Amino acid sequence: MSLFTAVEMAPRDPILGLNEQFASDTNPNKVNLGVGVYFDDNGKLPLLQCVQTAEKALMAQPTARGYLPIDGIAAYDNAVKALVFGADSEPVTSGRVATIQAIGGTGGLKVGADFLKKVSPDAKVLISDPSWENHRAIFQNAGFQVDSYAYYDAAKRGVNFEGMLASLNAAAAGTIVVLHACCHNPTGYDLTAEQWDQVIAVVKAKNLTAFLDMAYQGFGEGIAEDGAVIGKFVAAGLDILVSTSFSKSFSLYGERVGALSVVAKDAEEAKRVLSQLKIAIRTNYSNPPIHGGAVVTAVLTNPELRALWEKELGEMRVRIKAMRQKLVDGLKAAGVQQDMSFITTQVGMFSYSGLSKDQMVRLRSEFGVYGTDTGRMCVAALNSKNIDYVCQAIAKVI
Ligand code: PMP
């Protein structure tokens, strides 16, 4: 008997589990479309030029590594505010946004969840059906009851917008609604600008709390285009939370760079909010690490590096779109009868392919093509070398 005798084995993380299976697969043609990571056309994880240049400059002036303030690098927090809301936007200039540097987008969500649990302990949380796996777990572990709102319409291959509005309309006042600001994970289907307006109207009328998760800004239509939804919520006078991730947009996955921004009523309220966010940080991990935040600050605040980042991010976005088109064309050429053009209406890293669990299992076991059992495939991992093979494989299981 030990203290841990009764500890149960937790289920494996479905995506990381796939990675392990992929690593031990001996098929020489294997392709990993499971994990949400962008690879370049050579199948390599990119190290962006803007990041390399910023790192060289940082290395040229070695600095001692004291603790950062609890809320991170001040210049970083300001750069995030400028990126997410606009440097000259009213909430930023009036000082009513509280922003903290977070450990990735996940850290931003967790700090936000802990904060909200103190502010509205009895609120329920709604996440999209389906959503990124970790949304439910993060909010449940912060003590919330988590339900879902309708989102994906498999038959229509798109958003079940009527269902979504109905779910939101039925929610109790104060309910926290986690929304994907752009590039919905896992489906790839986003709301139109008009649909966002309708969602905002319901959030306002029903007094719901919107928590916008922005993990892919710049991967959809562009940095400003993807971020526009935030401005819409602000213009509607709503107090929102926004989590930011730079994992994908800077290809800095392992540096864990993200943020949380909370829009308050006025500057005085934002100060009080910030003080509570700091408590959440302090009791979780005390303060954030330096390197990733310093790199992103250097890039975002230097006009040349900023332009280079926008160019490199644009190239990633364009390459993903090209792969979507190649996938549609390749599937047709491989003999797939059904219309697969929905793949090009989806945005971001993922495609909900509509393939069944059985088909996904066959793709894996017979062809070494790895996606999730839900049919999600990472189109950002397709390239000019593996696309034909993937199309042939999909054609054989459809
Ligand atoms: N939100 C969504 C929707 C995501 O897809 C991800 C990353 N897969 C995150 C948040 C977390 O981002 P990070 O890796 O920066 O913690």
UniProtKB/TrEMBL annotation:
Q: Does the keyword Transferase apply?
A: yes
InterPro entries in the record: Aminotransferase_I/II_large, Asp_trans, NHTrfase_class1_PyrdxlP-BS, PyrdxlP-dep_Trfase, PyrdxlP-dep_Trfase_major, PyrdxlP-dep_Trfase_small
Which E.C. number(s) belong to this protein?
Answer: 2.6.1.-
What biological processes does GO assign it? Answer: L-phenylalanine biosynthetic process from chorismate via phenylpyruvate
A GO cellular component entry from the record: cytosol
Q: Name what cofactor the protein needs.
A: pyridoxal 5'-phosphate
CDD domains, A to Z: AAT_like (cd00609)
Keywords (A to Z) from UniProt: Aminotransferase, Pyridoxal phosphate, Transferase
Instruction: Look up the signal peptide feature and give its range.
Output: none
Enzyme class at the top of the EC tree: transferase
Keyword presence, Transferase: yes
What's one GO MF term for it? Answer: pyridoxal phosphate binding
Q: Which residues form the Aminotransferase class I/classII large domain?
A: 29-394
Q: Which family does it belong to?
A: Belongs to the class-I pyridoxal-phosphate-dependent aminotransferase family.
The record describes its quaternary structure and partners as:
Homodimer.
Protein's name in the database:
Aminotransferase
